[in-house]
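User: Hey, quick favor. My workstation is busy. Could you predict this chain's structure for me?
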Amino acid sequence: MSTITDPETRENRSNEEENESTAFSLSAPVRLVGFWMAIALPFLYLPLLTAGLETTGQRQTFVLLLALNVIALAVGHRH
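Assistant: No problem, here it is.
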């Protein structure tokens, strides 16, 4: 059984635990938003696909939505 007696080591451990809890508290909401964005974004494809991808703007919008969906899937996949 070992004990931590060095104050510097104790302070480093405290800082690491604080950083981990902050990272966890921020990552959960980000994963949640990513998850729900990954579910909601495909519904925005429907009007574009129904109207057709005839213009450059429509194609660019579709590709942007697709890229956002892939990012949202990557961010929210562990939710």
